[in-house]
Amino acid sequence: MSVPPHQRQVSLRGASAREITRDALLEKVSHQRELRSYLRRAAAAALFIQRVWRRYSELKKVSVQLREEWEELIDRHKSSMTAKWISDRVLRPFLFFITPRPWFYQKDDLQMVNSASCCFTILLSSINSSDPEKNFCLLSVGAQEERSTWQYQAKKLITLCFAILAECNFSKLGGATEKTVQLTALTMRLSISLTDSKTWKALISENLREADVPVRKLIAFLASERSSTYSCIRRYMTNLNTNKQTEKPIAPTDDRLLITASAVTLALRPFNLKDIEGDGYDMRRAYVEYVVYILTIPYLFRCLPSLLLPAVCHPSVLQPCLSILRTSEAEIFEEISRLQSSEKEALFAHKIPYPAWLLANIINLPTDSGHMTADFDCQLYIQAVNCTSSNLLKHLETNKESVDEIINDVKLSYVDLLKPVHQQWHLTKLLSLSKGGNSLIDVIQFYYYMLQFFCVLNPVIGSMSILNVLSFNPEFVVKLWISLECSIFGANGQSTGGIKNCSRGVTSQTRQNKGFKDTKWSNMLQKIKGKSFETDETNLTSCSPVADVASSQDEFEMWDVEAVKKEISKELLCSLHLFCAVYGHLLLVLDDIEFYEKQVPFTLDQQRKIASTLNTFVYNSFAQTGSQANKLLTNVTTRCLHLLYERDCRHRFCPDSLWLAPGRNDRIPIAAAARLHEAASMQGADSSCASSVLTTVPHVFPFEERVQIFREFVKLDKATRRISEPGQIEIVVRRDQIVEDGYRQLSHLGSRLKSSLHVSFVSECGLPEAGLDYGGLSKEFLTDVLKAAFNPEFGLFTQTSTSDSNLIPCMSARILPNGMEMLEFLGQIVGKAMYEGILLDYSFSLVFVQKLLGRYSFLDELSTLDSELYRNLMHLKHFDGDASELCLDFTITEELCGKMIVHELRPGGTNVPVTSENKLQYVHDMADFKLNRQILPFSNAFYRGLSDLISPSWLSLFNANEFNQLLSGGKQDFDVDDLRTNTKYTGGYSDSSRAVKLFWEVIRGFNPKERCLLLKFVTSCSRAPLLGFKYLQPSFTIHKVACDVPLWATIGGQDVDRLPSASTCYNTLKLPTYKRASTLRSKLLYAISSNTGFELS
């Protein structure tokens, strides 16, 4: 009978019951089933524990009883023990009640120590007995049953002996007696005797071959994994190493030496056994065990006594291990990883990874006192080091936090172990083997891995020792490039088409010039004086592809290296990385005489190949994805490329097409590149291809395009400021106090100086000058401020002693009132001029500009600052005599306001004389002081002001020479047609006016110097805008000045007598209406040569 749904269900038990769902019921049943299973397992585990405990308890009771009976038996039969009796009545019960557990050095187990010592003493006495009946080892050549029993007991004894050795720790003896050390010594003596039939005194010569069989079996067991031989020796050596570094040894030195020598001898037993594999035993496992457990012991070659090292370092021991390391790489390093995880509390396990100890031991064991072990396979050595280094670097990459945990002292101590790697004899030895291509590749990989590993341990100076050895070995640098060149360009060097052909004319001409002694030395002297080589400039222009097809597609293809655009192999990656690191290091100290004249280590032809290869590779690394798959390789190639590019900027050896070639086809539009770069800069990272290329290799964009990008940056910034900070800055300045008034009113504005500037002048008479500022007065203000401040008499800037007389901050500026603040203000003024596109007729010293661009200056740049000092330093660098006779020290004396101030080039430099050994360091320290340290405070002050208006990322597009061009304009001449196209006419003039036509006719007849004087007369700058007169602000203007000439004067042939004048603030030439070209020419030349403007009006 069904219950109506509206009625409540009532349980017959007297209580309401909820209906349980099917899922809940199944879950409840499953839970109960798991509970019952758990109870069954818990009961089974309890029964198992009870069985184990009962067995242990009973065995312990039996062992104690058996040991007591055994001791009584030994006491009764000490004098009458046969070999058979020893085997049955001594060893059999002894091996039962003795267990390999850490009881040997505990106070309450000294009775067990005594028992073990007694047994081992009996065995040694038996082995040393000349009576065949009493010699235990002769059982090995007895009946079959005796042989089997002896083999079994010998293996048990060997296992027990090494278990005792593993627990031998001299630093943990505590209050134990000498019996503990004697026990370990006895075990080693016994193990040596059991594994050497020559120590069996009762063995006759007829049984030697028969006895050799069980001994070989025992040694084979020694080499097997079941014996745990090498793991026990490792524990002992690790404890020995710990004790050696922490405490003075308690045990006598003789016992320590005996135990250690015996352990090493037993470890090497399998290596000295010939044809053991012919007996069916696999020695491979012994080699693996030796590598895993022995060669990863920290400081192995230091903790071993010196008399044992020749045996451990012998080729018959090391070479099979290194060979198995190469062939079983994955298996060995997996076991090493497991070993490191299991030995968490072992010394150095939590600091230096075990593969690093393997590397240190492989490097040090075959090398000693500046030479390699005789008859050692160096090729195998190189391959083993490469294999270990590769796996070590992988380990460090996946465990980066473990490197940070290593204490610096431990790092330095470990790096010191790798000293042979950065010694010249080691490199020479390896290079002597690299006659074939494969061997050289192995050597390259060897130092590539070493370089990587040293950088990981010490990112700042870790690789310095390696780079010093490699870069100052000309043979290695040349071999490295030849190998790289063959991989990239092919065996004949022709894979890139015309690179070699293009360079042939340059090289042959250079070689020809070097054949003339007078030309060579004159060029060298010119270089020392800071001038460029005429021969090299001639070469660059006479190189037929550059001269004839300067802008053709073929020439660009010559320098675009296709081979490095593809995915490169591991071997090429290693070669390229190592070459760039080594050659980049060498370029730091390679002076221009060596680079251009002597052409070491490479000819200029090779230098161009190197530059084109790196240029293409770096551009392609950034242009494809904007991020680098191998960041380390990209960083090191970029650094080397920059060093070559900066040297080319200072003294040309490459055509422009070389630097422009990679980006000739796929450069994005200028406006888009500027916007992407600005967006990436605002995000704090280069997130796009274009921004990465602009930041890293801007030289792949032509200079004119980079100038347009710069102007686009300014345009975008102005548009942003018009929205966020509208308004203008109004100032009033006195003409006779223009610098001081400008400083007082503008220096505190910072980036607000980007706003429009309106200037009102006060004459020298104190009266306000009439006129409205529509841009001309502010330009006049900026140019006049800089004209006054850059005057050497003002005390802030001076001119270099070289022929170009560029501007550089005066050292006395720091003692002037507000001197450094004034330099910062001048940086703002220069930045304002650049921001507004106003050209200045000044150029800064390249050394000073390098600091503004955040770049380091090197030795040869000193020629642009102080040619006399540069000449003296170069003389010292190449001085063949004893440098100590020059009586120099590591100091420099500076004259400041009549006082002589001595600066130390290094701490304690006053007491460090210059010798032939350290003269190179002195030369570079002196150059570093003059080029970087001395000028840095002044450049920093100027930079702070400049960066208020010009972003550093904008300036990073240019080199030092280009910065000066950006500041002061283009070449020392201009295109008359371009000027005429972009000229405006006022006052009634037009392009068809007679006087205007005469003007352009006269200008075309001027020489370049006269045209520059005219441009300076009108615009206050002698150079044209970089992008042409279209970008001159305000535009070049010719204003008509009407002059009435009497009729009789005109008939008589007279012309206008008035001189032309100019208004530089508006870039306006006020030109009278001349009738004849000769008059216009003479009047114009007179005016532009008089350094006047308004006064002629």
UniProtKB/TrEMBL annotation:
Ranges for domain HECT: 753-1097
Keyword Cytoplasm appears in the UniProt entry: no
MF (Gene Ontology): ubiquitin protein ligase activity
Residues annotated as the enzyme's active site: 1065 (glycyl thioester intermediate)
This protein's record includes keyword Ribosomal protein: no
InterPro entries noted in UniProt: E3A/B/C-like, HECT_dom, Hect_E3_ubiquitin_ligase
Gene Ontology BP term (one): ubiquitin-dependent protein catabolic process
EC numbers: 2.3.2.26
Matching Pfam families: HECT (PF00632)
Pathway listed: Protein modification; protein ubiquitination
Record key words, sorted: Transferase, Ubl conjugation pathway
Domain of life: Eukaryota
Top-level EC class as recorded in UniProt: transferase
Reactions listed under catalytic activity: S-ubiquitinyl-[E2 ubiquitin-conjugating enzyme]-L-cysteine + [acceptor protein]-L-lysine = [E2 ubiquitin-conjugating enzyme]-L-cysteine + N(6)-ubiquitinyl-[acceptor protein]-L-lysine
Family: Belongs to the UPL family.
Function (record text): Probable E3 ubiquitin-protein ligase which mediates ubiquitination and subsequent proteasomal degradation of target proteins.
Name the UniProt record assigns to this protein: HECT-type E3 ubiquitin transferase
